[in-house]
Amino acid sequence: MRINKSKSITNWGLYPSIKTNEYIPQSIDEYKEAISSSNKLIARGNGRCYGDASFQNDVISTKKWNKFIDFDRDRGFIEVEAGVLLSDILEASVPAGYFITVTPGTKFITVGGAIASDVHGKNHHVDGCFSEHLVYFDLMIESGEIVRCSRNDNPELFWSTIGGMGLTGVILSARFLLKKIETAYIRNEAIQAKNLDEIFKLFEESESWTYTVAWLDCLQKGDSLGKSIMLRGEHATLDEVSENIKKNPLKIKKKPKLNIPFFFPNFALNPLSIKVFNWLYFNKQLKKHVKNYVDYDQFFYPLDMVHNWNRIYGKNGFIQYQFVIPKNNGLEGMREILKTIADSGNGSFLVVLKLFGESNSKAYNSFPQPGYTLALDFKVNKGLKKLIEKLDEIVERNGGRIYRTKDAMSKPSLTNYLKNVDSTKFESIQNERINRFKKQ
Ligand SMILES: Cc1cc2nc3c(=O)[nH]c(=O)nc-3n(C[C@H](O)[C@H](O)[C@H](O)COP(=O)(O)OP(=O)(O)OC[C@H]3O[C@@H](n4cnc5c(N)ncnc54)[C@H](O)[C@@H]3O)c2cc1C
């Protein structure tokens, strides 16, 4: 089997980094061999989590496991190996009139990673998490045995693996249901909100929309705290789109991709440059309410248009801080958090607000809970740990928690929500860090 010894790896935030032995199995026997020859290891997909979730001294890469097993074009069921990327699925499924029912803000994640984090999208309040549309998956457990898991077959293992962050075994393949679409376009509305009260009201009013999300300017204070733009959308039907699109409704034009060719120097990202960026972003839309049609890439994956955008934060990297707080405390909790960030001057280009709907109580390891969730990037610098401590304290006081797949340095009591993931073989450095706190 190929093993890359002492390979340096990072996840998307480039912080932290670690040297690991990367096992790259070519066959089921090599998967078994990797698992039996290591004392402790964790599965790794495309490294699009942040922090240390897919880190261990030994990791097992699923990226070579990227074959399609079955695609039922009549009913929309797809079965793939766990290393297949969502982008590969879309390339095959959109021309056939199907879309991934729940997708995160990047399409460059594997199916194994989607299940292990039980990812959510802009439609959580309507379609739940990725697992809602999952039929079954095959999991290799400690003994090397392959176990089929579904709601009926091995349901305990099914539910603990969903959102279980790779701590129950290695997902080898999965079958799930796609959503029927008539076009590759989204009917999109962009609405400006002048502050937090306005954007919260907009979320409440937009609950019947399938997709809702807001981008915030986190350096605003006072009456403008929470200044934002809401995007809401629906898959466009054939009747709605222009004659031009109707000719080939399931095809989108390939766009040239931008690339960040090198790490930005440390001074490049500072409160002033973020202020300028935010000013340009939040003022480019002249009207308060704009309606248009955009292709699915523009609507779901705007960040994927810029290759290596994670380099803009420089070599020290960045963390993503994502929390959820219950709806009752939403407005006041969020106000306190945004005020703390604005006062710290530690700005973020990327600030995304969403409203989660009801969660599935059976999927007990999934992160979402009913309430407001905010995700923001912070460049790693000397003051960051102190800021995170302050934010964690507010999240905890408001009954919230932190998303494990983004966690790098939060208070373990906020990420300590996983159950039934007690394997001693499948273990991440992140889980060890969180468990050390549990034992104290
Ligand atoms: C730009 C960007 C936007 C994002 N937006 C969202 C969002 O909107 N919603 C959301 O929910 N998430 C979002 N994420 C997070 C991302 O969807 C998850 O971290 C996802 O799990 C990454 O998948 P991956 O294949 O890269 O897995 P990795 O990052 O390699 O691993 C993530 C976790 O999955 C486990 N894992 C991976 N493969 C397997 C397998 N085969 N078997 C068992 N365990 C496995 C790993 O052990 C690890 O714990 C975003 C990330 C980025 C970079």
From TrEMBL:
Residues 15-181 form the FAD-binding PCMH-type domain. Pfam families: FAD_binding_4. Keywords: Membrane, Oxidoreductase, Transmembrane, Transmembrane helix. The chain crosses the membrane at residues 157-178, 260-282. Belongs to the oxygen-dependent FAD-linked oxidoreductase family. This is FAD-binding oxidoreductase. It comes from Faecalibacter bovis. The lineage of its organism: Bacteria, Pseudomonadati, Bacteroidota, Flavobacteriia, Flavobacteriales.
